[in-house]
Amino acid sequence: VQLQASGGGLVQPGGSLRLSCAASGFTFTLSAMNWLRQAPGKGPEWVSAISGAGDATYYADSVKGRFTISRDNARNTLYLQMDGLKPEDTAVYSCAKLRTPNYSPGVPIQYRGKGTQVTVSS
User: Fold this and answer.
1) For the purposes of burial, counting CB atoms within 10 Å of the CB of 70, is it exposed (0-12), middle (13-18) or buried (19 or more)?
2) CA 79 to CA 76: how far, in whole Å?
3) N or C: which end of the chain has fewer CB within 10 A?
4) What are the residues facing 46 on neighbouring strands?
Protein backbone atom coordinates (compact mmCIF):
# COMPACT_ATOMS: atom_id res chain seq x y z
CA VAL A 1 0.00 0.00 0.00
CA GLN A 2 1.23 3.46 -0.88
CA LEU A 3 -0.45 6.76 -0.13
CA GLN A 4 1.31 9.98 -1.10
CA ALA A 5 -0.20 13.35 -0.26
CA SER A 6 0.78 16.48 -2.17
CA GLY A 7 -0.37 20.03 -2.83
CA GLY A 8 0.50 21.68 0.45
CA GLY A 9 2.17 25.05 0.78
CA LEU A 10 2.04 28.52 2.27
CA VAL A 11 -1.20 30.45 1.82
CA GLN A 12 -2.66 33.63 3.29
CA PRO A 13 -5.73 33.53 5.54
CA GLY A 14 -8.84 33.27 3.43
CA GLY A 15 -6.97 31.53 0.64
CA SER A 16 -7.43 28.10 -0.93
CA LEU A 17 -5.43 24.95 -1.54
CA ARG A 18 -6.25 21.62 -3.16
CA LEU A 19 -4.56 18.57 -1.71
CA SER A 20 -4.21 15.30 -3.60
CA CYS A 21 -3.46 11.78 -2.40
CA ALA A 22 -2.20 9.25 -4.92
CA ALA A 23 -3.07 5.69 -3.91
CA SER A 24 -1.59 2.39 -5.11
CA GLY A 25 -1.20 -1.21 -4.01
CA PHE A 26 -4.84 -1.92 -3.19
CA THR A 27 -8.31 -1.79 -4.75
CA PHE A 28 -9.12 1.88 -4.27
CA THR A 29 -12.88 1.59 -4.66
CA LEU A 30 -13.11 -0.92 -1.79
CA SER A 31 -11.68 1.50 0.76
CA ALA A 32 -13.25 4.47 2.43
CA MET A 33 -10.62 7.18 2.83
CA ASN A 34 -9.83 9.77 5.49
CA TRP A 35 -7.97 13.03 5.59
CA LEU A 36 -6.18 13.63 8.88
CA ARG A 37 -4.07 16.53 10.11
CA GLN A 38 -1.57 17.10 12.86
CA ALA A 39 -0.56 20.53 14.09
CA PRO A 40 2.75 21.13 15.90
CA GLY A 41 2.61 19.87 19.47
CA LYS A 42 -0.83 18.31 19.02
CA GLY A 43 -2.19 14.86 18.31
CA PRO A 44 -3.71 13.73 15.01
CA GLU A 45 -7.11 15.22 14.18
CA TRP A 46 -9.65 13.63 11.86
CA VAL A 47 -10.70 16.11 9.14
CA SER A 48 -12.92 14.36 6.63
CA ALA A 49 -13.92 10.98 5.17
CA ILE A 50 -15.46 9.64 1.98
CA SER A 51 -16.96 6.27 1.10
CA GLY A 52 -15.37 3.99 -1.46
CA ALA A 53 -17.98 4.85 -4.07
CA GLY A 54 -17.69 8.56 -3.27
CA ASP A 55 -21.39 8.87 -2.51
CA ALA A 56 -21.08 9.72 1.18
CA THR A 57 -18.89 12.40 2.74
CA TYR A 58 -18.23 13.42 6.33
CA TYR A 59 -16.55 16.44 7.91
CA ALA A 60 -15.25 17.59 11.26
CA ASP A 61 -17.20 20.57 12.59
CA SER A 62 -14.03 22.69 12.40
CA VAL A 63 -13.87 22.42 8.59
CA LYS A 64 -17.52 21.91 7.61
CA GLY A 65 -18.59 24.38 4.94
CA ARG A 66 -14.98 25.26 4.05
CA PHE A 67 -13.41 21.94 2.97
CA THR A 68 -14.66 19.50 0.31
CA ILE A 69 -13.49 15.91 0.02
CA SER A 70 -13.76 14.02 -3.25
CA ARG A 71 -12.21 11.10 -5.09
CA ASP A 72 -11.53 9.99 -8.66
CA ASN A 73 -11.67 6.21 -8.61
CA ALA A 74 -10.52 5.98 -12.22
CA ARG A 75 -7.29 7.76 -11.24
CA ASN A 76 -6.95 6.22 -7.74
CA THR A 77 -6.74 9.70 -6.30
CA LEU A 78 -8.28 11.38 -3.27
CA TYR A 79 -8.69 15.15 -3.01
CA LEU A 80 -9.30 17.80 -0.37
CA GLN A 81 -10.35 21.24 -1.56
CA MET A 82 -9.68 23.72 1.22
CA ASP A 83 -11.26 27.17 1.00
CA GLY A 84 -11.46 29.97 3.54
CA LEU A 85 -8.27 28.79 5.20
CA LYS A 86 -7.53 29.98 8.72
CA PRO A 87 -4.24 30.05 10.68
CA GLU A 88 -5.60 27.25 12.86
CA ASP A 89 -5.70 25.01 9.77
CA THR A 90 -1.90 24.97 9.77
CA ALA A 91 -0.81 21.34 10.04
CA VAL A 92 0.65 18.36 8.22
CA TYR A 93 -2.20 16.78 6.24
CA SER A 94 -2.17 13.08 5.40
CA CYS A 95 -4.54 10.58 3.85
CA ALA A 96 -5.49 7.24 5.34
CA LYS A 97 -7.09 4.06 4.13
CA LEU A 98 -9.88 2.29 5.99
CA ARG A 99 -10.56 -1.44 5.92
CA THR A 100 -14.11 -1.10 4.61
CA PRO A 101 -15.82 0.76 1.74
CA ASN A 102 -18.08 2.56 4.18
CA TYR A 103 -17.01 5.08 6.80
CA SER A 104 -18.05 5.20 10.43
CA PRO A 105 -16.15 6.64 13.41
CA GLY A 106 -15.44 3.17 14.78
CA VAL A 107 -13.75 1.79 11.67
CA PRO A 108 -9.98 1.71 12.29
CA ILE A 109 -7.42 3.16 9.94
CA GLN A 110 -5.56 0.43 8.12
CA TYR A 111 -2.77 2.55 6.66
CA ARG A 112 -1.76 6.19 6.82
CA GLY A 113 0.58 7.79 4.32
CA LYS A 114 3.14 10.55 4.68
CA GLY A 115 1.73 14.03 4.80
CA THR A 116 2.06 17.41 3.16
CA GLN A 117 2.59 20.65 5.08
CA VAL A 118 -0.09 23.34 4.96
CA THR A 119 0.81 26.71 6.48
CA VAL A 120 -1.75 29.51 6.72
CA SER A 121 -0.10 32.79 7.57
CA SER A 122 0.02 36.39 6.47
Assistant:
1) middle
2) 10
3) C
4) 36
Could you give the CA distance from residue 15 to residue 13 in angstroms, rounded to a whole number? Answer: 5
The distance from CA 103 to its chain's CA centroid, rounded to whole angstroms, is 14
Tens-digit pLDDT profile for residues 89-113: 999 999 999 999 999 988 889 999 9
Residues forming a β-bridge with 10: 119
Angle at 106 between CA 20 and CA 92, to 5 degrees: 30
Among 4, 18, 24, 35, which Cα is nearest to 76's? 24
Instruction: Name every residue whose Cβ is closer than 8 Å to that of residue 60 and which is 6 or more positions away in sequence.
Output: 45, 46, 47, 48
Q: Do 32 and 98 touch, CB atoms closer than 8 A?
A: yes
